[in-house]
Design goal:
310 residues; alpha+beta; 3-stranded antiparallel beta sheet; 7 helices
C-alpha cells in the first residue's frame, strides 16, 4: 500500500518520515495498540490483533509489591517475630531468638522459604484478581506458621510459655479438613498442664457439677458437642470456668457475667496485659493458657476462612 504526500501529492517511499520531493513531514501512518502493541493503520478504530478500541484504551498498570524481594519478606518475618514475642513470650529475649535462628538448622529452612514466598508473590501479582489482598493473606498465614515452627522446633528452651509439639502438624496442613476436636486438644494440650482441673469426658463428671456448669455458663444447644470443661473455682464446684464445644467458646469468671462467642463470630483475639480480649470481652485464666488459647482461636479463625473460601 502506497501513501501520497499531503502537500505535493507524489507517492512516498515506504517508511519515509519526510517527503523527498517537498520536505513535508509525513503524517503517522500507523497507531500502536496500547494493550498488545500491535501496529494498526492510522484510520483503524479497533486493534486488529486484540480488538481493543484505539485512542481510548490505556494499558492496565502492572501491580507492584516490595515482597517480590526475599529480603523484604525476611524483614516482615523479623518484625512479626518480635511482635509475637512481645505478646506471647518475652521480647527481651529477641536477640537470643535471632542468634538461634542464625545458628540452628532453621536458617536454611528460613532462607529457602523466603525465596519460595517471593516467587509466590510474583505469581499472585500476575494472576490474582486482587493481588494486594492475596499477598497479605499469603504472608500473614505463611509467616505465622513459620514462626510457630521456629518457636516449637528450634527455640523451645527459650520460650517462657511452652508450646505443644503436637501443633506442628497444622503448619502446612489443610485447615479446612482438620478435625476441630483434635485441633483444640493439640493446642491446649491439657496433659502438659497437670495442675489444671479439666474434664474431657463428660460421662465422668458428677451430675451435680454438670448442673452447676449448665446453670452458670454452659448454655449449649441440644445437638452441641462439648469437648471439655475447665473448672476455675477454688472449691471445685464448676460454677465458674470455661468450655469449648464444636460451635463456641463459653466462660465465666467468678463475680462476672457469663460469656459466649461462636467461632464464626470471632473477629479479634489478643493478649492484653494479664488477660485475653476475645471480641472485646474479658477472659482471664493464666499466662501459658492465654498463649495457647490465642494461637488456637486465631487458627480456628483461619480454618473458618478457608472453609468459607472453598
Amino acid at each position: 500500500m502506497t501513501h501520497s504526500c499531503t502537500t505535493c501529492g507524489k507517492d512516498l517511499p515506504k517508511g519515509a518520515r519526510y517527503c523527498p520531493w517537498c520536505g513535508t513531514a509525513v503524517a503517522q501512518q500507523h497507531v500502536s495498540c496500547p494493550v498488545c502493541g500491535f501496529d494498526n493503520p492510522a484510520e483503524a478504530v479497533f486493534c486488529s490483533q486484540c480488538g481493543t478500541e484505539l485512542g481510548h484504551a490505556t494499558a492496565a498498570p502492572q501491580p507492584e509489591s516490595p515482597f517480590t524481594e526475599p529480603q523484604a519478606i525476611a524483614d516482615r518475618f523479623f518484625q512479626l517475630l518480635y511482635d509475637t514475642l512481645q505478646e506471647q513470650q518475652d521480647p527481651a529475649l529477641f536477640e537470643a531468638y535471632m542468634n538461634r535462628l542464625q545458628e540452628s538448622a532453621f536458617r536454611s529452612v528460613f532462607e529457602a522459604r523466603m525465596l519460595q514466598l517471593a516467587s509466590q508473590v510474583q505469581h499472585l501479582l500476575a494472576r490474582a484478581i486482587d493481588p494486594e489482598a492475596a499477598i497479605e493473606t499469603l504472608l500473614d498465614q505463611a509467616l505465622d506458621e513459620l514462626i510457630e515452627f521456629f518457636l516449637v522446633r528450634h527455640a523451645a528452651d527459650l520460650n517462657v510459655h511452652p508450646l505443644p509439639k503436637g501443633i506442628l502438624k497444622y503448619g502446612y496442613a489443610d485447615l479446612a479438613e482438620a478435625d476441630l476436636f483434635a485441633l483444640i486438644m493439640d493446642y491446649l494440650d491439657w496433659a502438659s498442664l497437670p495442675e489444671e482441673l479439666v474434664y474431657t469426658n463428660l460421662l465422668e463428671i458428677p451430675e451435680k457439677l454438670l448442673q452447676n456448669a449448665a446453670a452458670s455458663f454452659l448454655f449449649v444447644e441440644r445437638n452441641e458437642r462439648v469437648f471439655f470443661l475447665h473448672d476455675w473455682t477454688l472449691l471445685h464446684t464448676l460454677k465458674a470456668g470455661f468450655a469449648m464445644t464444636d460451635q463456641a467458646l463459653y466462660w465465666k469468671a467468678p463475680s462476672l457475667e457469663p460469656q459466649k462467642v461462636f467461632y464464626h463470630h470471632l473477629r479479634h483475639v489478643a493478649i492484653s496485659g494479664r488477660h485475653l480480649e476475645i471480641n472485646g470481652k474479658y477472659f482471664y485464666a493464666h499466662p501459658t493458657l492465654h498463649v495457647r488459647l490465642v494461637r488456637l482461636l486465631r487458627k480456628i479463625m483461619a480454618r473458618r476462612q478457608m472453609i468459607e473460601n472453598d
